[in-house]
Each structure stands twice: as structure tokens, then as C-alpha cells.
């Protein structure tokens, strides 16, 4: 079975600085997707960024980028120019290519942004 | 376009009571999902429906039943609620063949 581990329960960053959230996963599959979801206090899960395992290029969405290391099974999220609105829980998630869209989530990292 | 909606937002039940959580999506998605979220843990899949008329168990199905009423609606039923089912429940939907899931706002359930 696949597992997703987020080793940082909490992180804090100064506004306008950069922060990196860690995620590792365990799978024997070669075709899969990885995601970062943001959950603000409103509780709604919002997709931040996704990465296809077959792509070597790291995904980027505005201030959010990932460092995908397939051999190391590592998928970290970098947030640049942090803003107060970035404060939230962040979840890393894995989905096997043929898993019927079933996601496996990590335990989450709470990000605090200091003004 | 409301996306994924869930009702109710919050519910308190007594042990042994039953209730149904409702979920609807207006994005014409084939796949729908029910997750639960507990403190310190990520979301865990309870049940999912790959298409209208089909449902399958996820990681933690015990104590729950689901109904895919039509393409838009996917309900989750607790027949006899237990305190261990106190959690936040999320419904999600997605287009078959695509990897992204879209989540509803969640239902907070407290079982006393």
C-alpha cells in the first residue's frame, strides 16, 4: 500500500520570505500523480499544484513550485514571497495512475505566516 | 457554478442515531468521493463512486453506506452513529481520467 509522510507538523515563515514544506511517499509503482492541497480555516480543500511522475520538469504555479525527486520519492513544496493568505494546512497527496482517482493523503503541515 | 456543495455544515448526533450527509456537484463529473478527516491525520477515503450506478469501498468503509442517486448526487449514510465517527466529512468530485479532485466545504459531525 502507498503511504505519504509529512514530517513537519508545523512550519512558520516571515511574510515575503520563502518556505519549503516536505513530503515523502512510498510506492512500488512508476506511473502516478502527486498533489499539494491547501486547507484554509474555511476547511475547503483547494488544489495548489500537481505533478505527473513521468515528467522530469518540476511543476510551477505562480509563487508555488515543487522539487520532485522521483528516485528519492520526495515531493516538496516551495512557497515564495509568502503572504498572510498562505497560512493554512497543507496536504501532500498521491494517486496511482490507475487507482480510480483514489487519493492517499499525508498527515498535513500547518503553515503560519508572521507579519 | 456552485462546484461541490454539502449539507449540513454541522450536526450533533447521539450514539445510535442515524443520518445522511448530502453532496451534490454541478460540474458534470463522473467520479465522486467521501472522505473523513481526523486531527493529525490526512483525509481518508470512505467510499467512492467512479460513475453513476457504481460504488466501491475505500480505506475506512465500516459503519457507512453510500448511494449514488444520480450523476450529481452522492450521499453518505450513518445507520447507527458511534463516537468514533466524530469527524469532518468531505465530499469531492472529479472527471474520469483526470487526476484533480474538487472538494466541498465539509460537514462537521459530533457524535455524543
What would your notes on this structure say?
The complex is a heterodimer of chains A (115) and B (112). Chain A has 115 residues and is an all-beta fold. Chain A has strands spanning 3-5, 10-14, 19-21, 24-26, 32-39, 46-52, 60-61, 64-69, 74-79, 88-96, 104-105, 109-114. Chain B is an all-beta fold and 112 residues long. Helices cover 0% and strands 49% of the residues of chain B. Chain B has no helices and 11 strands. Chain B has strands at residues 4-7, 10-13, 19-25, 31-37, 43-49, 56-57, 65-68, 74-78, 87-94, 102-103, 107-111. In chain B, strands 2, 4, 5, 6, 9, 10 and 11 form a 7-stranded mixed β-sheet that branches. A 4-stranded antiparallel β-sheet of chain B has the order 1-3-8-7, with no helix packed on it. In chain B, a hairpin with a 5-residue loop joins strand 4 and strand 5. The termini of chain B are far apart. At the A-B interface, strand 5, strand 6, strand 10 and strand 11 of A face strand 5, strand 9 and strand 10 of B.
Short account of what is shown:
Chain A is an all-beta fold and about 120 residues long. Chain A contains no helices and twelve strands. Chain B has about 110 residues and is mainly β.
Q: How far is the first residue's CA from the last residue's CA of chain A?
A: 41 Å
How large is the count of helical segments of chain B? 0
Percentage beta strand of chain A = over 45%
Give the fraction of residues assigned to helices of chain A.
under 10%
Through-space gap between termini of chain B: 36 Å
Shape of chain B: globular
The largest sheet of chain B is: 7 strands, mixed
Q: How many strand elements of chain A?
A: 12
Shape of chain A: globular
Largest interface, with Cβ-Cβ < 8 Å? A-B, 25 and 26 residues
Low-confidence segments of chain A, given as residue ranges, are none
Order of helices and strands of chain B: EEEEEEEEEEE
Number of strands of chain B: 11
Q: What's the overall average pLDDT of chain B, rounded? A: 92
Beta-strand residue percentage of chain B: over 45%
Structural class of chain A: mainly beta
Structural class of chain B: mainly beta
Q: Describe the biggest sheet of chain A?
A: 6 strands, mixed
Low-confidence stretches of chain B are: none
Can you write the helix and strand succession of chain A as a string? EEEEEEEEEEEE
Number of helices of chain A: 0
Amino acid at each position: 500500500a502507498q503511504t505519504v509522510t509529512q514530517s513537519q507538523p508545523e512550519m512558520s515563515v516571515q511574510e515575503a520570505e520563502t518556505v519549503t514544506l516536505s513530503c515523502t511517499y512510498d510506492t512500488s509503482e512508476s506511473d502516478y500523480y502527486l498533489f499539494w492541497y491547501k486547507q484554509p480555516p474555511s476547511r475547503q480543500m483547494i488544489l495548489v499544484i500537481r505533478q505527473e511522475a513521468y515528467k522530469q520538469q518540476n511543476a510551477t504555479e505562480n509563487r508555488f513550485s515543487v522539487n520532485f525527486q522521483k528516485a528519492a520519492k520526495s515531493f516538496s513544496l516551495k512557497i515564495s514571497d509568502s503572504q498572510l493568505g498562505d497560512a493554512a494546512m497543507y496536504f501532500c497527496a498521491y494517486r496511482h495512475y490507475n487507482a480510480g482517482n483514489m487519493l492517499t493523503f499525508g498527515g498535513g503541515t500547518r503553515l503560519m505566516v508572521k507579519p | 457554478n456552485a462546484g461541490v456543495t454539502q449539507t449540513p455544515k454541522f450536526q450533533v448526533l447521539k450514539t445510535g442515531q442515524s443520518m445522511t450527509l448530502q453532496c451534490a456537484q454541478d460540474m458534470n463529473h463522473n467520479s465522486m468521493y467521501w472522505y473523513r478527516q481526523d486531527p493529525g491525520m490526512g483525509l481518508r477515503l470512505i467510499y467512492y463512486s467512479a460513475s453513476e450506478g457504481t460504488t466501491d469501498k475505500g480505506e475506512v468503509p465500516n459503519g457507512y453506506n453510500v448511494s449514488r442517486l444520480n450523476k450529481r448526487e452522492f450521499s453518505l449514510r450513518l445507520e447507527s452513529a458511534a463516537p468514533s465517527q466524530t469527524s469532518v466529512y468531505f465530499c469531492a468530485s472529479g472527471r474520469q481520467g483526470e487526476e484533480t479532485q474538487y472538494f466541498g466545504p465539509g460537514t462537521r459531525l459530533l457524535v455524543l
